[in-house]
Amino acid sequence: MTQAVTNDCIQTIERIVLEAGKLALSHFHKLSTVPVEAKGHLDLVTAADKEVEAFVTQALVAAFPEDGVFGEEGAARPGRSGRTWVIDPIDGTFNFVRGGDQWAILIGLYEGGVPTFGVIHVPLRKQTLLGGKGIPSTLNGAAIAQRKGMKPGQASCGVGFHPMVPVDQRLETLRFVLEEAQMSFRCCGSAALSMIEVALGQVDGYLGMGESSWDVMGPVPILEQIGIQTTLDWTQFDLNDKLRFACGTPEFLKAVAPIVPFGTTLDLK
Length: 269
Hints:
Elements: H1 7-28, E1 36-40, E2 43-46, H2 47-63, E3 68-71, E4 76-77, E5 83-91, H3 93-97, E6 104-111, E7 114-122, E8 127-132, E9 135-139, E10 142-143, E11 156-161, H4 167-180, E12 184-186, H5 191-199, E13 205-212, H6 213-216, H7 219-224, E14 229-230, E15 242-248, H8 250-256
């Protein structure tokens, strides 16, 4: 049984994510001195990722001592409440390192086997989105409009690939989007920023190939409140799985169903 996310809880999470944004920006403004490591080819982690995750973890533990915490950079604190806060300290680290503005801090609440509440904070764009079960989705406090439909002559989607996805799978995905679905596409290097574009109606949907739970745990509850659906079947996933999924209007999901069936994880064969 899920617990209600109270107004006090929302205010606490907003405060934490905004403070985390300030910490990330302090690193961003001195990029030339920020240590950068490679987790894999084109898969980077910085001191900023680690410090932001440590800060958010400490703040969440202090605010919600009964809850668990799970983070991209190793945070793993078991809880007693059945609730787990999932952290992506910087979604779009490659963009961060290159000096771009397409990166965000994500916090999502995982409860009862599904994401129920999420926050996305984009420091350089001064955008904060939040929403979830029983909580209207907002952007900087203003309600986000419901999304539906898709105009075939203007159809567009975001596309994201984890660096481990083989080139042939990437090319097949783009071929399908362009040739069979007959859509334009955007690839910005951040699942969160791409899903914000879905939320604001700038694209009809998003195809994520190789995303992690922390990439989507914050955005999904926000999108669900405004009519955006996903192919994610949380009963089939572990928090460490790489996901292959689509999110968008019902019309978008129907159009991409041949390439992203419901409830699939990433197949690297």
